[in-house]
Structure formats: C-alpha cells, structure tokens
Amino acid sequence: MQRLLLSGDAAAAWALSERLTLGQAWRLISENPAAAAGLTDRGTIAVGKRADLVLVDPLGPQSGPPVGPRVVATIAGGEIAFINGAAGRLIYG
C-alpha cells in the first residue's frame, strides 16, 4: 500500500475506496495524524486518553426519505457534548 498524507473527508473517501479494515482506516484518519502532531493524549480509544469521539449513523433515519450519514453524538473530553434527539431519548428516557 502506498503511503499518503490525507486528512478529513479525503482520507475517509480514500479509505473506503481502498477497502481498508476499520483498524487501518482508524490509523489513517486519527492515530497517525495525532502522532504526527505530537498529541499523545488522543488518536486512539484507550484508558487515559482524551476521549474525543463522533458517533455516526451511516444510514441515517430508517423512516422517511434517505438522508445518508448523520452525527448521532459527540463526546469531548469524555463528556457528551451533543446527542441527537432519538439517541438522547434512548439514554435519558
């Protein structure tokens, strides 16, 4: 595999086109950029790390017109910063 320096949407699109495993894609768009920037507290999901995460539903709502991927929740520093209405109802009732 060729080594590329990509970020954001370009990296995600390339990862999908190359049919990378989830682990390979994660390293490409999170772990490697964090390491390159010297950010040792992020880039992987592990105990003691910062825990900045974006949870995405790749299909979107199952009813109504198709809308594609949508953000379900955002976690910043291990705390829920945003949660979509339906997901919030599942968690908070």
Notes on the protein architecture:
This protein has 93 residues and is of the alpha+beta class. It has two domains: 1-45, no CATH class; 51-93, no CATH class. 35% of the residues lie in helices and 18% in strands. The chain contains three helices and three strands. The chain has helices at 8-17, 22-36, 85-92; strands at residues 53-57, 70-76, 79-83. The protein has a three-stranded antiparallel beta sheet with strand order 1-2-3. A hairpin with a 2-residue loop joins strand 2 (70-76) and strand 3 (79-83). Helix 1 packs antiparallel against helix 2. The longest helix is centred in the first third of the chain and has 15 residues, at 22-36. The termini are far apart.
Give the SSE layout.
Blueprint: H1 8-17, H2 22-36, E1 53-57, E2 70-76, E3 79-83, H3 85-92
Antiparallel strand pairs: 1-2, 2-3
Helix pairs in contact: 1-2
Task: Describe the global form.
Answer: flat
The share of residues in extended strands comes to 15-25%
For the CA atoms, what is the radius of gyration? 15 Å
The figure for the number of domains is 2
Structural class: alpha+beta
Query: Which ranges are low-confidence, i.e. pLDDT below 50, for 5 or more consecutive residues?
Result: none
Question: Quick gist of this model?
Answer:
With 93 residues, the chain is α+β, with helices and mostly antiparallel strands.
Give short descriptive properties of this protein.
single chain, 93 residues, alpha+beta
